[in-house]
Structure formats: structure tokens, C-alpha cells
Amino acid sequence: MESEYESGDAPCFGPLLVDGHPVDPDTARDVARFRRAERARLVTARALPSEEREEATAALIDGLDRIVALEQGMTVAAYWPIRGEPDLRPWMQRVHDAGAHVLLPVVIEEHTPLEFRTWSPDSRMVRGVWNILVPAHGAPRRPDVVIAPLVGVDKALHRLGNGGGYYDCSLIRMDPKPRIIGVGFSGCSLPTIYPMPWDVPMDDVLLSDGTHLTR
Q1: Which string of DSSP letters, residue by residue, matches 25-37?
Q2: Domain holding 131: CATH number?
Q3: pLDDT tens, 45-71?
Q4: SS3 (DSSP) at 215
Q5: How far is CA 178 from CA 5, 71, 76, 195, in A?
């Protein structure tokens, strides 16, 4: 699924052209290799024992309750967990019960921006691209808040994700930009991911050890 440059390292643009700005191919290749290695290491590291995972996830949910002020009618994009990501579905239920609208990202076509569709506990779910569960129907909506799962995050709050690049190519096009909150288990911090022109930094980062960083 990933090329030498990785689809996530030049999302939605030409492989070496970012909104008309050329990117040095050697730099792009080196950054892609670094990220691929770090991604593999961090995904392995977050394979926590079940009790530790439950405690860490509960801590993240408590943290989200503190930093996200839910309001009637607001739209909050969450995610359906894959590859050992924190399972925030209990918090999604809380958001729904508070009268806010929960959205889930949907890949309509590879290498194109995400759509965000409304989810509720009784939504019919289908298998989308890469077998990820998504709402079967619904018009695209713009989120006020986006909760993005972290594989890793650097000191400048740039996110290392799963390598598809979909969040970056979607968020960079949103106007007005939503509040972006990266969530992950502790131990996923990096000095830098060597950000490229298309990388969109998080506004907040929340980790399971209680760390809350803001930009």
C-alpha cells in the first residue's frame, strides 16, 4: 500500500509537488524511510496488555472530557479504532448523548480528501476502504473539532499517522479550520517527524499519561 515515498508523505498531491511547491526528492525519500521505521516501532510499542490499555484509554477519555466543551449541535469527528489505536467509542457515545453530532472519516477514493459522515449508536456500518467500518450513508459534514489518532507526535505537534496522509490532505483544505486534537498512548513522542510542507500540526495533543500540549 505504501510506495518509496509513502502515500502519506505526499497526500493528495503529486508525489514531489505540494500545491505547486517542489519538494526535493532525496529529502522526501529520506523522510519517508525514517517515518516508516518509526511508525513500525511505535505501532509495536502500543500493543499494551489489556488491563493497561483499558486504564490508558480511560485516562484519555477523562482528558477529552476536560478539554472539549461539548455543546448542543456541535460536530465532533472521532475515528473507528484500527491497529491498536485507543478505542474512544465510549466517549463517542457521551458526545452523542450530550446532543453533539459525532462524525467519522470516510475514504471515498484513495489519495483524495476524507469525507466526514454522521455516526450514531444505531448507524448502519459497512466495510470501507482497507476494511475499516464507516457509516453506510450520510451527506458530508464539516467538523468543528477533529480527534485524530496518533502513532507518534513531535515537539511541534506534528502528527505521525498510519501513512495514508488523509488527515493532512483533508485538514489543510478546511476553511475555517477545525480544532485538531491528537490523542495517543504515552511513549509516542518524538523530537521531530521532519515535517514536510503538507504536514498539518495539531492544536492540542493529549496523551494517556495526562500530558496535554497546546500550540
Answers
A1: HHHHHHHHHHHHH
A2: 3.40.50.10420
A3: 999 999 999 999 999 999 999 999 999
A4: coil
A5: 28, 15, 9, 20
